[in-house]
Amino acid sequence: MTNLYLEEQGEGQLEKEFGTRTNETHKYKRVSDLDMYQRVAKTTAIYPREQAIIYPTLGLTGEAGEVANKVKKLIRDGYENNKDYREALSKEIGDCLWYISILADDIGFKLSDIANANLDKLLDRANRGKLSGSGDNR
Ligand SMILES: [Mg+2]
């Protein structure tokens, strides 16, 4: 398997941009924006290049399923019997974020550009009174 970031950027680039690697397991200083997250996350992306787009899409749907399963168990067992549900859900959301980040990279988009385009779309809908309803292009 190939580490796509290291293959494209060369080892040491993240240290220059985001700070010092703290140990051999690729821990970096806390990320503070989406693009920084995306670039660091990419260092952990190990899958065949010919499976770009497909691999993170399958992973994203799997992780979204894990979110749904944990929420399902809240319904079945009740919140009182799942005291750590917020922590558990936050970890699954993080897994989703990783796959979203990697998928965005596979199609050549910065995560911040996707986030801003999404906010622009939603704020435009809000300004036109079209937040409710359905359809991608309302
Ligand atoms: Mg998970």
Describe this structure in words.
With 138 residues, the protein is an all-alpha fold. It has a domain at 1-46. The protein contains 6 helices and no strands. Helix 3 crosses helix 5 (85-106). Magnesium ion is lined by residues 63, 66, 92, 95.
Task: Write a concise keyword list for the protein shown above.
single chain, 138 residues, mainly alpha, 6 helices, 61% helix
As a percent range, the share of helical residues equals 55-70%
Number of helices: 6
Task: Indicate the radius of gyration in whole angstroms.
Answer: 18 Å
Indicate the proportion of strand residues.
Answer: under 5%
Determine the N-to-C terminus distance.
Answer: 42 Å
- Structure ligands: magnesium ion
Unreliable residue runs:
none
Shape: globular
What can be said about the biggest beta sheet? none
Query: How confident is the prediction overall: mean pLDDT?
Result: 86
Order of helices and strands: HHHHHH
Structural class comes to mainly alpha
Extended strand count:
0
